[in-house]
Write a structure and sequence with these properties.
- It is built from nine helices and no strands.
- The protein is mainly α and 168 residues long.
- It has a domain of 85 residues.
- Helix 4 crosses helix 8.
- The longest helix has 22 residues.
- It starts with a helix and ends in a 12-residue tail after the last helix.
Length: 168
């Protein structure tokens, strides 16, 4: 018997089915199950830990972060400590001699002084990340910092493979 005939018989002669719950209830249950599974994967995952420390609870609500803020939160982008991992830069040192990562550029690097945030104490680092990315003015400053780093990449990158000074 052809498939189209079976399909037609099923729709005309099939056993009527009824749902015991309203469709809206089932949709809500599926959403909650999906969010629960997503949260479990996020809690137990091995990747994205820098973002996890900032946003430990998943949500289907949009954060309205710019591309630059996402790069900053994830540590991906124009940071030599990130680029070196992929062989895209020979060193993870800044032109100022320190290891270049996102926190260095945002708080300590003399080459990015115009974009500095106050450097957090080690015990408040997670709170600092959350605060810096939750305030609109801070996010705009981060956007400008990343844009500056990309635009002035050649001037900021260290060509040395060792620091230009030794820490005291």
């Amino acid at each position: 018997m052809p498939m189209c005939t079976l399909a037609k018989e099923t729709t005309t002669d099939g056993i009527p089915a009824s749902l015991q719950f309203p469709k809206s209830f089932l949709k809500k249950q599926l959403l909650q199950l999906s969010l629960s599974r997503w949260q479990a994967r996020w809690d137990n995952g091995e990747t994205g830990r820098s973002v996890y420390s900032i946003i430990p609870k998943i949500s289907n609500k949009q954060l309205h972060w710019s591309r630059e803020c996402i790069q900053f939160a994830a540590g991906h982008g124009p940071f030599p400590s990130y680029l070196k991992r992929f062989g895209l830069h020979p060193t993870d040192y800044c032109g100022c001699g320190e290891i270049r990562n996102r926190l260095h550029y945002a708080t300590r690097c003399p080459l990015t002084l115009s974009y500095h945030h106050k450097e957090p104490s080690p015990q408040f680092i997670v709170h600092w990340w959350k605060s810096a990315l939750s305030r609109k003015l801070s996010r705009r400053n981060i956007d400008n910092l990343i844009t500056f780093l990309v635009t002035n990449e050649d001037q900021i990158k260290s060509q040395n493979t060792t620091p230009s000074h030794t820490p005291a």
